[in-house]
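Renewal narrative, Specific Aim 1. Our central claim is that a sequence can be written position by position from structural information alone. The example that follows is taken directly from our test logs and has not been curated for this report. It begins with the structure tokens describing the chain, in the order in which they were read.
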């Protein structure tokens, strides 16, 4: 047990979750590495939601509210860390969840289905797709196989996405919302809206704004949002924060 007073309590609890889901077979080995990369960037950000992240969260909520056919795409890390929030968002938007795995094996799919089965009450009424026979063009990996819902969606929320796939989705004409602590990743740079924040901090805020923004407010927020400018502001914030830090 990690004591609550531990200075790195939150971070260690997330690690425990990641390890637990790895051991259950839901998360791939590479997911452990991806988490570590995220942690490093979170250290530099200061492990809090910045004003820039908040701006992109509001823009993301706005885009989701105004979209006709949104979809939430999840991988092992997202299931491990933020599944409750994904469920809440999916219910609010009345949108399907797509399970999309980089390392897709029968074993992993089985482990994920078992986990969903254990949580079937919360999942009631939600459509969950495990990919399908529709193909994302310009993509080599297994992740190109998607469901009909995903294929015809207009906006996809894809937390912790891979650069290749984010790029291919944009080429398909989709609006892509991502959550990624690394503002320099290809995913961050190509996405329509990039939330540079930790997924467990960003998701409850995203849910809150989807609940509270009106369509008119959403339209106004989107009009003034500039993703490239936001990413540049975050990079500036990170470098200034580092320059000011004293040991
Ligand atoms: P890209 O493929 O976009 O160029 P990458 O190859 O550097 O990025 P991936 O391993 O494909 O990185 O994606 C994992 C991304 O998810 C990393 O950029 C990492 O910072 C981010 N990440 C990991 N854990 C979290 C988390 N808990 N919250 C937010 N972001 C996270
Ligand atoms: Mg990648």
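The sequence written for that structure reads:
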């Amino acid at each position: 047990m990690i004591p609550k007073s531990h200075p790195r309590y939150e971070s260690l609890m997330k690690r425990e979750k990641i390890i637990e889901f790895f051991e259950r077979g839901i998360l791939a080995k590479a997911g452990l590495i991806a988490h570590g990369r995220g942690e490093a960037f979170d250290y530099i950000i200061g492990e809090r939601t910045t004003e820039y992240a908040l701006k992109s969260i509001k823009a993301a909520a706005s885009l989701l509210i105004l979209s006709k056919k949104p979809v939430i795409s999840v991988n092992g890390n997202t299931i491990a860390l933020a599944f409750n929030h994904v469920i809440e968002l999916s219910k609010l938007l009345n949108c399907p969840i797509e399970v999309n795995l980089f390392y897709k094996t029968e074993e992993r799919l089985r482990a994920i289905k078992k986990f969903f089965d254990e949580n079937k009450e919360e999942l009631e009424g939600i459509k969950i797709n495990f990919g399908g026979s529709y193909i994302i063009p310009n993509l080599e990996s297994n992740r190109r196989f998607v469901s009909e819902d995903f294929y015809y969606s207009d906006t996809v929320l894809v937390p912790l996405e891979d650069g290749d796939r984010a790029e291919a989705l944009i080429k398909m004409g989709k609006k892509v919302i991502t959550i990624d602590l690394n503002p320099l990743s290809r995913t961050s740079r190509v996405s329509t809206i990039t939330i540079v924040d930790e997924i467990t901090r960003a998701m409850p805020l995203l849910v809150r704004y989807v609940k509270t923004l009106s369509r008119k407010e959403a339209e106004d927020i989107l009009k003034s949002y500039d993703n490239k400018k936001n990413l540049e502001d975050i990079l500036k914030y990170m470098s200034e924060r580092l320059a000011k830090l004293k040991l």
